[in-house]
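Lab meeting prep.
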Amino acid sequence: MLDLRRLRYFVTVAEELHFGRAAERLRIAQPPLTRHIAALETELGIRLFERSTRSVQLTPQGALFLERARTVLQAVGEAENSARKMAQGVAGRIAIGYTSSIPMSEAFAEIVRRAGRALPDVDLTFREVATASQQRQIADGTLDIGFGWSARDAREDGLKTLVVTREPLVAAVPSGSAHAARPALDFTALRDETFLVFPPGYGSAINTALDTLCAQAGITPRLGPTASQVATLVSLVAAERGVAIVPAFTRTLQRPGVTYVPLQGGHGLEQTLSWVEPFGAACVERFVALAREVAKDSA
């Protein structure tokens, strides 16, 4: 394998076409430089320079090798620069999981916005994954970060969790229903309604929140059609197929025939960011630090 140091020595001599000036530029003595070039020629089996007492010139083989040597050194330089950036946490790749409703959250948008500005050389990849599945995939290394809702104690999997913000719950109801005219609803007022939910086994924290609300109110919920997208649930409400309990920011989904009514009692969900430590990459640690800043600003 070629010695990269000798490649650098060769390129410098080729650029100066003078061993003395090249040695000065490289800050080494001329005799060792001459020996290194001779050793490189022996290793390659070709003459790189034509030397005389008055001049140094590249041979045709040397001129061709110079092009290749520069390409190699440039690639090595880029690799070294990339490695330094990754060590500093300003380059790399972060696999991010999110639940279907999270992208509507301003906190999510703000964290991703800050990451884009602070870490422009970090490749952020996004994958829609339910909260429970996110935590499994973070634990096994498939995901680096997960945006979800508090549904259970993440520490069971050795995960770290940051509460980014707390989002109130609202009822999405058909605009033609009596509920739509009320400024706020006690959850018990919905006892006779059909609830639109995420599929069983999807791992939705919103389903878990609905189960908790029903248990507290002594209601056995009647379940209607299911959907894996919150936007689809809202569309089903517009079609008068039932009501849905959703985060308050879902109100940005304005659908004709749907009214969002706050729930009395301060019911809400904690929007969380999950990861595993020790960090697999410095850029993940930087991302979490940015999320902490947003959570602090939101408090």
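Slide two material, second protein:
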Amino acid sequence: MTSPARTAEIIGILGGMGPAATADFYAKLVSTTPGSSDQDHLRTVIWSDPTIPDRTEALLGDGPDPTPWLLDGSRVLREAGATVIAIPCNTAHAFVPRIADHVGLPIVHMIGEVARYLTTLSPRIRTAGLLATTGTVRAGLYQEWLDRFGIRLVLPDATSQDHEVMTAIRMVKAGTHGDTTTALLSRAAQRLTEHGAQAVIAGCTEIPLGLPADAVDVPLIDPALVLAQALVRRATSESTARQDGNGQDENGQDENG
């Protein structure tokens, strides 16, 4: 893949949901970007605001609406020079429709990218399992997108959701995850595969921090990694288009000579 270094794109990461997941996402963006030097990487602005109210609590009616915080953070990124926004939090995507028309920048939709990615796998994925926050599940975020691509979604039962998935997510957020976290999530994932899941979506950005891919018998889909790959493709295609359009880089220097 061509290096996206000469792209005009500046990635704005709206993070803090939680901080560890934001750091993990940036590491994935760096590792996904092709290149052999600092200058080959993407310019990035990170706004990590852990004061954003809990997204699941808001969706369940137990906490304040995080929309004003998300909108303010998006504006911070825009004013800092970002040209596109990435939100490495699945549950926060329930609030994207509320901010999208007010940000003034495109938002690369992580859940939509995951749905498209699933269609590229072989053998074809007809049923996927989801490990996510209760807020993401209740909001139907993945159900809506996977329906568009004809993929059936399998969800944990209420006991597994509360006592395995959410317990593990809270452990990661508290920085206390370890073997117990992995055991909880791997059991939840196994139940999904027993109900026909051909792949399991780690639909909360904390989950890959507590569930290694080799702890699951089917492909474990990491939405943060899929989002990082989508951003690199976007920047690379934008860079190629600029070069193909006039033979010059962004500083007006001739690329051909």
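Talking points for slide two:
The beta strands are 10-15, 43-48, 84-86, 107-108, 127-131, 152-154, 199-202, 220-221.
The domain at 10-110+224-246 is CATH 3.40.50.1860 (Rossmann fold).
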